[in-house]
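Q: What would this chain look like folded?
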Amino acid sequence: MLKQHLKSALTLAGLVLAMVSCTSHYRIDGVVETLGYEGRELSLIEFLPSRITKYDSCLVNHGKFQMKGKADTTRLVFLCKDGRPIIPVYIEKGHATVRILPTEMTVSGTRQNDLFYSFLKKKIEIDDRYEDMSQRRITLARTGFDPRRMELIQDSLRMIVDECEEMICEFMAENYDEPAAVGVFMMLSAGPSNGVPSLVKRILDAAPEDFLTQSYVNGYTDRMGYDRSIGSVN
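A: My prediction, written as C-alpha cells:
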C-alpha cells in the first residue's frame, strides 16, 4: 500500500513539473540612458477600448530594469512611465531587451518585437528622407524660387511616399498572420479620421479574413463602416 501511494505521489509530482515546464514565460531586461527615469516606475499596460490592464511594473535602478512573468498568449502592450505610454512592447515567450536611449527606443530579442521594430526602423529611415527633402523645398522657396529644382524636389517627395507605401504593403502581405501586423495596423490607423485612408483601405482590401477578425481590426472596420464586399466605405 505504501509503495502504491508513493508511486501515485511521484506520478502526480511528475505531471505538475511537466505542466510548469510547458508554461511560457517572458523576460524583459531594460537599459535606460535617458535623464528622468532613475527611480521612476515603468509598467506594461494593455490599452483596450473596454479595459486597461497593467501586467507588470518595476522601478528603474541604476539605469536598468527587469520584468518577467507568464506569457500564455502574445499581447501588444505599452511600456509606460508613471502610467503614460512610451513605446509598444509585445509580451511573448522569450527574452526581450528594451533600450531607451536619447536617440532611439527599441525592443528586440523576440519574434514579434523584432518584426515590429525592424519595420519601424525602415519607416523611420524613409520618414527622415522625406523630412530632409521637405526642408530642401522650404529652403528653396525662401532663398529664391527655381521652377525646375522645385519640380525635381516634388518628384522626389512623391517617389518617397510611394516607396513608403510599397514597403508597408509588402510588410503586411508577408506578415498578416503575425501579431506584429496588427501593431503596425494600429499605428497606421491611429488618430481622428472622417474615413478610411487610402493606404489603410489598401491593406484591408488585401487582408485575409483571419486578419479582419482580429479584435482591433474588426473594431476599426465596424467603426469606420468599411465593407470589403462592396469595395468601399459606407
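The first strand starts at residue 25 and ends at 32.
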